[in-house]
Amino acid sequence: MPYTPIVATLGYVLSADRRQVLMIHRNARANDQHLGKYNGLGGKMDAGEDVVACMRREIHEEAAIECTRMSLRGTISWPGFGKLGEDWLGFIFLIEEFSGTPLPHNAEGTLEWVAIERILELPLWEGDRHFLPLVFDADPRTFHGVMPYRDGHMLSWSHSRIG
Question: Is residue 1 one of the residues assigned to a domain?
Answer without folding.
Answer: no
